[in-house]
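user: At home tonight, take the chain set out below, taking as long as you need, and be ready to discuss the fold:
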Amino acid sequence: MSDNLTNLIIKGLQGHKLDRRTFLKLGGISGAGFVLASALPKTANATDQPSLVGSVDLNAYVSVGDDGKIVILSGSPEMGQGIKTSLPMIVAEEMGANWDDVTVVQTSIVDTDRYGLQWAGGSYTLNMNFELMRQMGAMARDMFLSAGALLMELPKHELKAENSVVFHPSSGQSRTFKELVAIAYKQPIPAVEDLLFKEREEYRIIGTSKSQVDSLEIVTGVGDFGIDTRVPGMLYGGYVKSPSVGGKLISANIDEIKREPGVIDAYSIKGNGEPRELMDGIGIVGTSTWAVFKAKGKVNALWDETQASKDSWVDFEKFAASVDSPTGDREVVSRGNLEQVFADDSNLVIDSVYEFPYVSHMCLEPMNCTAYFQEGTNGAKDHLEVWIPTQSGPGFQTVAESVYGLSKDQLTINIKRMGGSFGRRTSSEYVCEAIELSKRSGKPVNLTWSREDSIKHDYFRVGGFQKLRAAINADNQLVGWEEHAIGVQQKGEPVIGSGFRDNAFPLVNFPTVRGTMTLMEMNTLCGPWRAPWSNTHAFVTQSFIHEIAVATGRDHAELLIEMLGEPRWLKKGDIRSMNTGRAVDVIKLVTEKAGWGREMPAGRGLGLSFYFCHAAHVAEVAEVSVDDNKKLTVHKVTVAADVGPIVNMSGALNQVQGAVIDGLSTMVGQKITMENGVIEQSNLHQYPVLRIDAAPKVDVHFIQSDNEPTGLGEPGLPPLAPAVTNAIFAAIGKRVRKMPLIDEGFTV
């Protein structure tokens, strides 16, 4: 929320001039913000109970009851990134609260007029909300200090708030929040510009380790995941689609399916042709998920595949092999006279080709949604209620209007916790499928995809190939760099994650550079996958930089630091641009902590990589060994990251450790292929995940700089693959330019 909007709300509150409707309109704030409502005059629906921030009537984000207990709502969707814990920690810190007094509750419905943007993604949620959380906490603290000054008859500026207590250090007098709340809620709400924030050395909550606020519920099986939704009178649903994208339903054995045990009804459904909304399919509702799954296995459908995808991974490989030029026809970035550099006979030119596959999101919780569509009667409007595990509830509001003609006042959207997402739960096809089944059955329907559905109908991380070449002068300095991505387009435009962007290192800062793409038209669905673009670009570029270091006999860390140049912001004032000084600092820290340069026994090696993405500077060193049978053991991964101040140390460590494990699992054995438009993998027997005995030790170090805090859900993953492949080369002298490793004969 802008300072202007905050002050507008506060000004109105201080003047007691706002009615409830006007206040709610002003109360729409960005991200997971808070509305201070204590100075509002009592309404007909309000109680006379003291309330510092929010009230029963207003249902605002934060409230303090007359028992001193503090409730903080978290508005951003939770998918395992810990935002439900970290954002309230910021508020509690500035408020001077005792964390044990805080209860965190997820906002269960989407109401952007009240809660603002309720979405999560891009590892940006923390950064987007940090200042606002501080403001709301500091406002509450100021009001408690004012109350304490009145009650204890002491100067306000001499008081402090800590552990839900306002105290006077000199005299030892104190009052608890519980004792002060009845007075505090009547105090003037301070203007944003008058707020005093804590110094970092005063933090008692931020920077500590806190368990996720709903850990107990999760481990005891009562977590609020979408798949666990239960509604009175609910049926269970499933949906069968064409195995290749774009297939249209001709016919199906609907009558036979209706006779299957536990099946209540089945339907032939015509979609709108939009894969992210509703495709043709066979919908089934029944008495249990298992009954529906069994019936889905009996479906015999005839599909018109005239306009369906004919994609083939083999054809994509052949296309890539046919591209001879080091330069593509679609330019992304170009600086300097690269042709002159490569034509100079005194320069050493090296080149390589890298390959990476399509991969699936493999969320632990499959796609699911519960929907209840109620047709309006007696002139009333239709109404739709949905329970969705999604990264963006407001995003579905747009879909509901465009597909079903439903306005916001016809919707109730309940946001549920996600069992993993990594970018997958940004589309609405599984929601629309549930809605269609509810419309036809007249009942609430809990639709769940099978594991096979979730793989075959995923929005994959796109695969591709990349040609690289570099020029090195007689002084062993890198003087020219070129990248040529052979990727995928749909309707003439690159799909998300294909190739690279012009702000990627080293394209973004090298003086003599060119980046181009050659694209093949393919229809396989693609979408954001944990650190899109970066998760493949880091592999190819950071591996190639190591190739250059080896070819020139230079230390890899030294070469990286030289390529980064003088310490500077590439875009001053833009937290999402690289700072070369911060980059160098994490490289130096990770090499120190990993013991870079030490003697290693035969068959064992260290590999280094660095990458900047999602406003995070991250460097990693992998220590691996490889035996004579090419069995790979990743013993340890050391990570150094600068994402500004850490809010929840436990959550930050978990995110980095999880990213390392996810990255390793992906690079070792995961690959999606397709033939004639049909995905060839269906479950874990064909798409393996890393087993626990192969998990390395992960040693994480943070540089807690004075920069803005940023997220960690994605940036720990991209450097992992090149760190491992560079370590393999150091161990056995084999250069790995292809993922997954099992395609190169490795096992773990």
